[in-house]
Amino acid sequence: IHEPQSQDSLLSLSVDSEGLQKQIDELSTLSETPAPSVTRILYSEKDVLARRFIKNLMGLSGLSVREDAVGNIFGRWDGDEPELAPVSTGSHIDAIPYSGKYDGVIGVLGAIEAINVLKRSGFKPKRSLEVIMFTSEEPTRFGISCLGSRLLAGSKELAELLKKTVDSQNISFFDAARFAGYANHLQDLTSVFLEKGSYSAFIELHIEQGPILEEEATSIGVVTAIAAPASIKVDFEGSGGHAGAVLMPMSRNDAGLAAAELALAVEKFVLESGSIDTVGTVGILELHPGAINSIPSKSHLEIDTRDIDEKRRNVVIEKIHQSALSISENRGVKLSEFKIVNQDPPALSDDLITMAMESACQELNLTFRKMISRAYHDSLFMARISPMGMIFIPCYKGYSHKPEEFAAIEDIANGVRVLALTLAKLSLA
Ligand code: GLV
Ligand code: MN
Ligand code: MN
Ligand code: MN
């Protein structure tokens, strides 16, 4: 039996900002590179320590903790009607090389603090509330983005692919997972899959990673859609040879120049779309053997391209493919690989969830605006199995994926309040 729920106490209850900032700072020290940068790679020693840190906090908040075979971590607060589908929230704590300490992190630590806020207010959930820390949102180690949430959402292709996936040191996914204490005696990852309807809602709190909220001095972004991401791996192979002895008019078959030409072509095709929403980046470009006096015999590129319009993004992918083929022909190099690693559709937020977030903002007297997310998030995949919504907070100059990333604790606390109140509303719905 529970008493009539009043959300008034939630409106007054403040977030433990000092404690939350301390946690953010402490987690940032679990990094493979020196401060202010943060690097936390999937299943590394630092990642294992960071996971321990999160599980400990979940325990301190009275959540019951469960982990799946790839290390997605779930902390549950049982509601009065635990047979109903729970409301879930969460994000990731892995960090790409030389990035900052807020991306993903505030959506995990902030979610645990939102639970604390609700508990301190005396709130009793009807639907259970669950905090999720997703494994490897970032593609750093295995080239696969949103690995944990993609699997949760039931990607059979990924469950198969991981059986033969290795990192750049040739360590298999399964060996890496076992190092971190996961996937023991397993080859089959279908146990990670969650059925559609497992959650009544999923909400992710995240820094905007763009400049709009800060420029407009708006407290909260209510995300309506997440742009469609894709990534491609390309390898060229040429003949190599002596940088002094092989003359220019002779056919050099320079794999490095093929890569350079393709990189510039990516920029050209993206600009040709005519839309500000189309973006493309060559974030990895490697030459072999990587000696100043040796013509590159191999080159490797990884290309990230995105758009809010899936078709328009696919046109760019097709142009990149055609260009890779013609560059290979014209330069006499072999296109030994052209692999579309992922080509994901965009995702839309659920109207009822965005409405709940908007009324939470109004009740908390916080300014808000609707916006799209140009970055991808675990929410992109959670949307496949659950109604989804995202809460953005301002960050300094929109900086992200670099050490200068910063969000003020007041803005983070606002996000936590909106999250807590939204979770409360959805728990009672
Ligand atoms: C997420 O990290 C992204 O690259 O959008
Ligand atoms: Mn990121
Ligand atoms: Mn992120
Ligand atoms: Mn390759």
Automatic annotation (TrEMBL):
Subcellular location per the Swiss-Prot or TrEMBL entry: Endoplasmic reticulum
Keywords: Endoplasmic reticulum, Hydrolase, Manganese, Metal-binding, Purine metabolism, Signal
Catalyzed chemical reaction(s): (S)-ureidoglycolate + H2O + 2 H(+) = glyoxylate + 2 NH4(+) + CO2
Entry keyword annotation includes Hydrolase: yes
EC numbers: 3.5.1.116
GO MF annotation list: hydrolase activity, acting on carbon-nitrogen (but not peptide) bonds, in linear amidines; metal ion binding; ureidoglycolate hydrolase activity
Coiled coil start-end: none
InterPro entries linked to this entry: Amidase_Cbmase (IPR010158), Bact_exopeptidase_dim_dom (IPR036264), Peptidase_M20 (IPR002933)
CDD domains in UniProt: M20_bAS (cd03884)
GO biological process, one term: allantoin catabolic process
Family membership noted in the UniProt record: Belongs to the peptidase M20 family.
Name the record gives this protein: Ureidoglycolate hydrolase
Organism listed in the record: Olea europaea subsp. europaea
